[in-house]
Write a structure and sequence with these properties.
The chain is α/β, with parallel strands linked by helices and 325 residues long. It has 2 domains: 194 residues, Bordetella uptake gene, domain 1 (D-Maltodextrin-Binding Protein, domain 2), CATH 3.40.190.150; 115 residues, D-Maltodextrin-Binding Protein, domain 2 (3-Layer(aba) Sandwich), CATH 3.40.190.10. The strands form 2 sheets. Strands 2-1-3-10-4-11 form a 6-stranded mixed sheet, sandwiched between helices. Helix 2 links the parallel strand 1 and strand 2. The protein is globular.
């Protein structure tokens, strides 16, 4: 059932629209009449709180853009709330303002399917998919659960409190797929970022959590948290994660990646869109991008421009089948 959050978001969108009108007039560096060049600082919006995978992505990609183009100054701004809806709704109001970017992920598709929001992915300009980010099911080190199979078996008859980052993100999707596959049922608690989710797990507010490797590898290495399985197609090649069994190895046929990428507002000219696609192509050649991929245990699967649009269309169909019920 869709949650009604439009009343909260309406004011945000209205204010953003006013900002976009003035910003687009002041920031027009060429538009449809010529080559685009930003005239001021660039905003990289992160629609989630600091400390999670989206925040890590936004900050890393901002730094990589600056490394690829010394003329760019990219400021990261967090606008969290509504499991990403507040940030995306604000960004909707930046229509036509080419000096704004957003660090995007699966919530871009899941929010319009499950929530009462005023946007879909078609309202924005896809620039670049930069990576795939699978998720782990984890528990505290002292948990009685030692595998995802243990958790599923318990959830078929008892209450298992599962933490997720954002009510519409990849965490919720993989748990839904697991429920559909096994007949288990999880009691979900939603948090606004992976950092909050990790703290809740360690604070014993929840029993298990779905977290991206980059959000929790420190706690895995310290021994405070243990991984129960990975919702990935194959085991990770990274030494730190190589011993984690996939859900499929444990008899749970579920694997799905959260994409990481960059979008721009809708209403951009071809020259503005092409400018940002080229900038992100250059980002892929930087040491900063390589470090982001390795530090966060990502798969560097990329798609630019129209290829990213095609990916979103296909991924949207999958999510509609899974959570659009």
């Amino acid at each position: 059932m869709k949650r009604r959050i439009s009343s909260i978001l309406a004011a945000t969108t209205a204010l953003a629209l006013l900002s976009a009108c003035s910003g687009a007039d002041a920031g027009d560096g060429g538009g449809s009449d010529g080559d685009f060049t930003p005239r001021g600082d660039i905003s990289m919006l992160v629609p989630f709180a600091a400390g999670g995978g989206s925040d890590l992505a936004g900050r890393a990609l901002a730094g990589a853009l600056e490394a690829a183009n010394g003329d760019l100054n990219v400021n990261v701004e967090n606008r969290d709330g509504g499991s990403g809806a507040v940030g995306y709704s604000y960004f909707l109001g930046q229509n036509g303002n080419a000096e704004n970017l957003l660090a995007t992920e699966t919530a871009l598709l899941a929010l319009p399917i499950t929530e009462d929001v005023e946007f879909t992915y078609k309202d924005f300009t896809p620039i670049m998919k930069v990576a795939d980010d699978f998720t782990l099911m984890v528990a505290r080190a002292d948990s009685p659960y030692n595998s995802c199979t243990d958790v599923v078996d318990a959830a078929k008859s008892d209450r298992v409190i599962a933490g997720i980052s954002g009510a519409t993100g990849l965490d919720n999707v993989v748990l839904t797929l697991t429920e559909d596959e096994t007949g288990a049922e999880f009691d979900r608690v939603s948090f606004e970022s992976g950092g909050e989710l990790t703290a809740a797990l360690l604070g014993k507010q929840i029993e298990i959590a779905s977290l991206n490797p980059g959000e929790v590898v420190g706690q895995l290495e310290s021994g405070d948290i243990k991984a129960l399985c990975a919702f990935s197609e194959e085991r990770y090649d990274y030494p730190e994660l190589a011993d984690i069994e996939t859900a499929k190895e444990q008899g749970i046929d579920v694997a799905l990646a959260q994409f990481r990428g960059v979008i721009a507002p809708g209403g951009l000219s071809d020259s503005e869109r092409d400018y940002w696609v080229q900038q992100m192509e250059d980002v892929l050649e930087t040491d900063e991008y390589d470090k982001y991929i390795k530090d966060n245990f990502l798969q560097p699967n990329t798609a630019a421009g129209e290829d990213f649009t095609a990916y979103l269309e296909k991924n949207n169909q999958v999510l509609e089948e899974v959570i659009g019920q």
